Amino acid sequence: MSVTSESVGAVGRRLLALRRAVRGVLARPLTSFHLVVGLSAVLTGLGLVIVLSASSIDSLTATGNPYGVFEHQVVYCALGAIAFAGAMRVAPERWRAWSPWLLLACLVGLAAVLVPGLGSSVAGARKWFVLAGVSLQPSEPAKLALVLWGAHVLVARRRAAEHWRALLPLVPVALLVAGLVVLQPDLGSAIGIVVILFSLLWFAPVPMRLIAGLGAGAVASVAVLAVGASYRMQRLTSFLSPDTVDPLGPGYQAREALYSLGDGGLLGTGLGQGTAQWNYLPNASNDFVFAVLGEQLGMVGSVAVLALYGVLGYAGLRIASRSDDPWTRIVVATLTAFLVSQAMINVGYVLGLLPVTGITLPLLSSGGSSVVVTLACLGILAAAARREPAARAALAGRSPGRRWLRGRRR
């Protein structure tokens, strides 16, 4: 079949029309808000489907109920939806005023969870409170509290941004939070706190020479932590030399994850039709849920999910760039960088590009505190999107029946 100039021209006109349509949608005043709400709903819904598929066999084997993990996930998603709606209606100045007290409460929680009898120990890690069958991981709200308080400190001390004093007291407090998390031990959450710290400093902005010096210290600290515990050293060794370690050792998960992705091919095996969840892949519904997704939805589905996180990154940075409040800009940009980098790290170690760190895939991995806190973070992004100058003007003209979008009056 020959390609004529008329067909090429027709394709060009269609692409031009599509480009104009996309630009028209992006120019609407509430596009940022709709993107955040839509992405939150899509990722949460997809997460429930994948968690059900990945956990049903393991739940059936452990408890006789194939819906055990899924039911817990539904409960936490419902709590997350409430957190999203609540965070969306809180004015930024209130978050900023509450941030020191939120961080202090989280520090108390991080210290208390290490006390035998208060914190619950699972697989050698003491990082949960369990009350009436409901678990709470204090490191998750601590990340959000650190973002809110860190942005407050950086804005209040912006006159010292060119001096090393700009790192005070943010860096010592962030190191304290990370240290308490490492004691649990939870290296994945500690890496998340480091990402938050550098994102805060980057978006403040703090001079590159200070960030570079701090980065060198962070790399050295990670190296010390890696060799300071045998299981971390085994993970690093299995990543660097996957063919020279025990096939059933620390590299087993990463190797099985790659097999699952390979089995998925282009279009996948279909939802619920994979083999990874049949106890071939440990933590299939948690750390390695992307492998299950890749097997059942194939490369096309995997790329689509990555595109959703890419759109989330675009939406968050768009909201930050349009905000007229310095504190809101830093908070929104940092939360966006944290959520997207968390997804990149998780996908990176599932693909074998990074050592396994135990960082979950936002809204897709099973988990309680992480789902609730992630949706609360997205609620803050939605609140900031509603307060873009163009969005405020558009909402001011809405009918009384749609005033729920406006939130609390400022």
UniProtKB/TrEMBL annotation:
Membrane topology: Multi-pass membrane protein
Catalyses which reaction(s): [GlcNAc-(1->4)-Mur2Ac(oyl-L-Ala-gamma-D-Glu-L-Lys-D-Ala-D-Ala)](n)-di-trans,octa-cis-undecaprenyl diphosphate + beta-D-GlcNAc-(1->4)-Mur2Ac(oyl-L-Ala-gamma-D-Glu-L-Lys-D-Ala-D-Ala)-di-trans,octa-cis-undecaprenyl diphosphate = [GlcNAc-(1->4)-Mur2Ac(oyl-L-Ala-gamma-D-Glu-L-Lys-D-Ala-D-Ala)](n+1)-di-trans,octa-cis-undecaprenyl diphosphate + di-trans,octa-cis-undecaprenyl diphosphate + H(+)
EC number(s) from the headed UniProt entry: 2.4.99.28
Pathway: Cell wall biogenesis; peptidoglycan biosynthesis
Subcellular location: Cell membrane
Superkingdom: Bacteria
Annotated InterPro entries: Cell_cycle_FtsW-rel_CS, FtsW, FtsW/RodA
Name of protein: Probable peptidoglycan glycosyltransferase FtsW
Segments passing through the bilayer: 33-54, 74-92, 98-118, 164-181, 187-204, 211-231, 297-317, 329-351, 363-385
Keywords in alphabetical order: Cell cycle, Cell division, Cell membrane, Cell shape, Cell wall biogenesis/degradation, Glycosyltransferase, Membrane, Peptidoglycan synthesis, Transferase, Transmembrane, Transmembrane helix
Principal location: membrane
Record bears the keyword Membrane: yes
Stated family: Belongs to the SEDS family. FtsW subfamily.
Protein role: Peptidoglycan polymerase that is essential for cell division.
